Amino acid sequence: MFYHPFKKTVKSKAGKTTKRWYYWWKDPITGIQHQIKMDCPKETARLF
Fold first, then answer.
1. What is the sign, positive or negative, of the torsion defined by CA atoms of 25, 48, 36, 12?
2. How far apart are CA 40 and CA 23, in angstroms?
3. By percentage, how much of the chain surpasses pLDDT 70?
4. 43, containing H or E segment
5. Which of 5, 18, 21, 25 has an alpha carbon 20 to 30 Å from 45's alpha carbon atom?
């Protein structure tokens, strides 16, 4: 399973835009693509 990290622009309730780290992967059994927000950018090193 390969993880693909990327940054996504998110708009807060107050109207500010920030960039958050996300990663996605495709489940080989079901073929469904999953997308999850990373809590900490340090997790990017864990994905590779």
1. negative
2. 12
3. 79
4. helix 43-47
5. 18
What is residue 43's predicted lDDT score, i.e. its pLDDT? 56
Cβ-contact 36, 44 below 8 angstroms = no
Sign of CA dihedral 44, 39, 6, 34: positive
- Quote the distance between the C-alpha of residue 27 and its chain's center: 15
pTM: 0.61
Distance of CA 29 to the CA centre of its chain: 21
What is the mean pLDDT of the segment spanning 24-41? 85
Residue with tokens 């864990």: 46
Q: Rounded to a whole number, what is the largest CA-CA distance in the chain? A: 40
